[in-house]
Design a protein that fits this description.
about 375 residues, alpha/beta, Rossmann fold, 2 domains, seven-stranded parallel sheet, six-stranded parallel sheet, 13 strands, about 15% strand
């Protein structure tokens, strides 16, 4: 029997970190042929040209699909989806995969799955069924669910929602978040190693900050980010602030410009386009709290026993651990949440997203699918 060609789509530093051990397992399986389709922020110097990290990790890139435009308006992102559909149609014609694996809810992932739908390639979707009411990603995620054929949910509530959308329960698997696998399997850097690699000196107190555009909020993106910057400016100047730059979402470049101005005016403050998975996780382990609205604050940070200050509605509806402190996007509320986080004992935190064996569960299911084409026909399952 010929090897099954499994094409993994990755468009950002975030989804790559979650997909790493799944990709490694496919690569090591003698019955599978790993194809890596790289798109989105990975191909942009503005966001760290992180395709180079994928190659350094030993994953040959099968195809590069450009999607990003200079515009990050709603119109620009809509056009990027169209460009992505065209690019992935060509890519799938070239690669002829037996199955596509996609994670999450970003617009470039939507483009890849749309193309796969029309050229009749079955899709395995990771992290469907979540709810994030403060972002257009919520609608994208559910749309991908309806175009996918296998579903790997990170928790029981998400799995229930996938079935509620009419998907066959026999194709829905509760596996946990593969990001926790990376934490379990990664040797983290020491404080000294981390400082040397990042070229900075960590302070007695440090915060890791990531804020992405909350695309469905009534309050403007810039106003919300300014509230965060105002709160951070009220902290002791000896508090170290390490930012990871915003995603390529609508109005993301406006936030990046605001961030650059802030970094230039405050001591012990720096920003990185991409830290890479090992440095990012190592930094979480060293800081006193993680602040912002990234899904990582809910998915991975609890496993490192650190508090998360989750701002605004971008992650509203998503399952969260006891270490997550929610607050509105207002300077006073953010500052109060940060001060609470700095006193929070997270040593007994239980991560609701699993035990760190997600990748093995996903790989076992993929290995059992000897004829992926049989997945193409779907029936609506009435609850």
């Amino acid at each position: 029997m010929p090897k099954r060609k499994i094409c993994v789509i990755t468009g950002s530093r975030a989804d790559y970190g979650l997909l790493f051990w799944v990709m490694k397992g496919i690569q090591d399986n003698p019955e599978m042929d790993l194809q890596v389709a790289v798109t989105g922020m990975h191909l942009s110097p503005e966001f760290g040209m992180t395709v180079q990290q994928i190659e350094q990790d030993g994953f040959p890139v099968s195809v590069r699909v450009e999607t990003l435009l200079s515009s990050d308006s709603g119109t620009g992102v809509a056009k990027a989806v169209g460009i992505g559909v065209i690019g992935f149609a060509d890519a799938f014609n070239q690669l002829a995969p037996d199955m596509v694996i996609a994670l999450g809810d970003r617009f470039e992932i939507l483009a890849a799955v749309e193309a796969a739908l029309f050229v009749r390639i079955p899709v395995a979707h990771l992290a469907g069924g979540d709810v994030t009411e403060g972002s257009v990603d919520d609608s994208i995620r559910h749309a991908i669910t309806k175009m996918a054929h296998l579903h790997f949910a990170t928790n029981a509530e998400a799995a229930r929602r996938i079935i509620q959308l009419g998907e066959d329960p026999s194709r829905v698997f509760q596996v946990g978040s593969p990001g926790i696998d990376t934490i379990r399997r990664t040797k983290l850097l020491s404080r000294e190693e981390l400082e040397a690699q990042l070229g900075l000196t960590l302070q007695p107190r440090n915060l890791l900050v990531t804020f992405h555009p909350p695309t469905m909020s009534r309050m403007s993106v810039a106003e919300q980010f300014q509230e965060l910057l105002t709160a951070l400016s009220r902290l002791d100047e000896n508090t170290g602030l390490i930012f990871t730059r915003p995603n390529a979402d609508m109005e993301g470049r406006q936030l990046a410009a605001m961030l650059d101005r802030f970094v230039g005016t405050r001591n012990h403050t720096t920003a990185f386009a991409s830290l890479g998975q090992v440095r990012y996780l190592s930094l979480i382990a060293q800081v006193d709290a993680v602040v912002g609205n990234s899904s990582s604050g809910l998915y991975e940070v609890p496993s490192l026993k650190k508090p998360t200050v989750n701002i605004g509605d971008r992650q509203k509806g998503r399952l969260r651990a006891s270490s997550v402190i929610d607050c509105e996007a207002a300077a006073d509320a953010i500052l109060a949440a940060i001060r609470k986080a700095l006193t929070l004992d997270c040593s007994a935190t239980v991560n609701p997203y699993g035990d760190g064996d997600s990748s093995q569960r996903i790989l076992a299911t993929l290995n059992s699918i000897t004829e992926p084409g049989n997945l193409l026909v779907k029936s609506f399952h009435a609850c």
